[in-house]
Amino acid sequence: MSKIFFKAGEFAALCGVKKDTLFYYDELGILKPEIVAENGYRYYSTKQLTTFDIIQSLKEIGTPLKEIKSYMEKQNTKNFLSILKAKQIQLKKEQKRLNQIKKLLKNTIATTEHALSVNCNEVQIEYCTEEYYIVIDAPEVSYTDEKAFHMKIQEHISYCRKNYYYNEFPIGEIVLLKNLKQGLFERKYFCSKIDHKANSEYLFIKPAGTYVVLFHKGAYETLPDAYHKLKKYTEQNGYKIIGNAYEEDQLYYLSVSDPNQYLLKISIQVDK
């Protein structure tokens, strides 16, 4: 029975790929030409179109060529289902990751655009609804201990990314009430805001209530000035501090090059 054969160029054109792709598949051993003539010309049969379709179909769902070769050596329905189910699990994880990136971009864009229109260095009173954070203990050292500082930051980022809690680029800080009362503005926690009450041992809830809010423009070294301004405003307007302070970067090293142009939102819970 006669067979129809295609030269490598013809077969490649029929499959919509370049000849180099066929040569690579030949090298890997997943699609070898049926005939190699004495002059080196390669010829493929019509039945190899089916083999090529198997390769392309599995590639489309993200199967590496090494796995495709292994499957073709032991091709059966059970192995086929195993590949599909494994790719389904991977796809769900990738979809979750992409949704997180989408949320990350949306929130960061909104924060950055809002930062361009705020009244800087002007204290305001705001009512805030309950908010949620993922936190990690900040190192009990000064900013000069860069190693401890960055190790904690990376630990926090890794945890948030692994658990899909990475909703915005900036990482904030929380100063506890007991420190505020003593005039100490040292952070207790690094934090990342999330949009739901997560089931995490690192969940921290910012209670709903009245807050004094200040968008402070300047380098981090000038933060004490911002706190003194908030404290003075609070006392002069008959309020008292009853809760923690929350620091959230609005403009920082990712969005501006000059530290003096950094913009930080500070919120402290108060009551009359």
UniProtKB/TrEMBL annotation:
One of its GO terms (molecular function) is DNA binding. Pfam families: GyrI-like (PF06445), MerR_1 (PF13411). PROSITE patterns: HTH_MERR_1, HTH_MERR_2. Residues 9-74 form the HTH merR-type domain. SUPFAM superfamilies: Probable bacterial effector-binding domain, Putative DNA-binding domain. Residues 84-111 form a coiled coil. This is DNA-binding transcriptional regulator, MerR family. Keywords: Coiled coil, DNA-binding. It comes from Clostridium uliginosum. The keyword Ribonucleoprotein does not apply. The keyword Coiled coil applies.
